[in-house]
Each structure stands twice: as structure tokens, then as C-alpha cells.
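Next comes a single protein record:
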Amino acid sequence: MNKKNFWQSKRVCVTGGAGFLGKVVVRKLQERGVKDVFIPQIEDYNLVNLKDIDRMLADAKADLIIHLAAQVGGIGANLKHPAEFFYNNLLMGVQLMHRAWETGVGKFVAIGTICAYPKFTPVPFKEENLWDGYPEETNAPYGLAKKMLLVQAQSYRQQYGYNALFLLPVNMYGPGDNFNLQSSHVIPALIRKCIEAQEAGRDEIVVWGDGSPTREFLYVEDAAEGILLASEKYNDSDPVNLGAGFEISIKDLVEMIANETGFTGKLVWDTTKPNGQPRRKLDTTRAYQHFGFKAQMSFEEGMSHTIKWFKENRERNS
């Protein structure tokens, strides 16, 4: 089945479609010829509220839902709002999938999180390791709330034959990311810190932890492509990792960003702050085998696009 045939005459609802990843998913849907993309705006539909979910489903009349909407943030935001991150993400996802099944939405693509993996997972993370331990404490409430969508997808397929998928993208980055220091993830936060310190003539920046943890990062265009390939070709509830297949230490990442942004000051490691999960790198074999997904963007080039975008769009991100 070619891309055009699958998407032809489909009505697609993308929750979180106005967000960082959502905008790219929507653009790629339009490039595939989807004429009818419904993007529920947060001002119009509070997806934690069942009445709003029902109204949204009635308005969207979707054949397929890609559920990207989530309350997310870095370690600081997770530590500050663990109850909200658990409750809002759980209710949003579980109620939406249930009502999508009840109202006859043909396919449901749930986007999980890498935070669902156990704190100590053998590297590279394989999908079968998901249940081998408790997630890293700083983001466990968020990770577990999202992980329940996997249980739901599998149990609804088993009992009702419902076509629900569960994808596990690694940390994303790219142009259009959230650069608000109160809620941003590590890459946009570091880019902003380095550029602002350099411009203000400060001779040091403070970075959380000790720099030893490793992370893997997926360019937003690649993540969106993986989600759409899964939507087209994958019809199973076994979880699937979406990643780029490499890891970089936070120390090396900070040095790379300082170098790319021209910041020459000192890096001060605040070891009173948590490191988060010790290592992260995904095994991406399943995604390639089942729907041919492989990340295309090199990390160096992706970072250069991201830094350039932030410099050109400073006003709206300050």
C-alpha cells in the first residue's frame, strides 16, 4: 500500500497538533495528501475532561487519532509537578482511547515516552525490557501514566480487536522546540543558557548533575516520519522504539553546544541536582523491521539547524 492510498480520504485527528512535534506531523500529513486534519486547540478542548473529549470526537469525526498531547517538561518540571504529570497524562490518554474505541475511530496511535523504561535498563533499551523495573524516580509519575496506554492498547486489542499502537520516541529536539527555561528539555535549555551567557558577557553557566548520564536524541522531522510510517504500516500493540541509535554524555553535549554557540566560559556542574536516568540508548530494530523506519538526520547537522532556528526566532522564545 503506498502512502497516498493509505491516507486518501482519511480524516485524521492530531491531539497536540499545535505543539513542537505536532506541527511537523501535521505538515507531513498534508504532504501525504491528507485534506482533513483536525487539531483540537487546548483553549477549546480540555482533554482531561471527558465531556470535552466527547465533544472533540464529535467535531473531529476522525478515522485515525494520533495522540501527541501531553503535559511534559524536563527534570525540574517533573519534580515540581509529579501529581499533575501523572493525573493529566493518564486521564487524557486512557479516556481518549476508550471513547475512540467506543465511537468507532478505526485506529489509535498512542505516543508514549522513553521515561517509561526502568531506571537501570540494559543498553541499548529493547522493548521487552519495559517491565523489568521501576522508572527513574524524577520522571516516574509521567512515565507510568504514559505506560498505561500500552496496557490499554494491548488489552483493548485482546478483548475488542481494537487497532491501537504504542510508540516510544526518545528525547526529541529540533527547530520549533520549547526554549522556556522553566519547562524545556536539556538541549533547548542549554542552547539558550549558552547564547544568553555569551551575550551578557558571563563567564560561566551552571548545568544540573555531574555530566555523566548519556542521552539519545531524535530530530523532530525523523520522529514525525516514524509516527506516520507506523500509522500507515503497523497494526500491532507490541510497543515500538523510535530513536536515532546513538548516545552522547551530557558532558559532551554541553561542550558541543558551547562550541556551536560560541560560549567560551566555564561549565559549573551543580551536583546537588539530580542526574536523571543514568543511560539512554534505544534498540531501533523493531521499527525498521515492521515499518522501515530509520532516522536520517545526523546529530551534528540537526543541532546546527536547531541553534540557527533559535537565533532567528529569539523574540517569541524569550
About this structure: Residues 110 and 166 are 5 Å apart (CA to CA). The first helix runs from residue 3 to 7. The domain at 3-173+217-245+281-297 is CATH 3.40.50.720 (Rossmann fold).
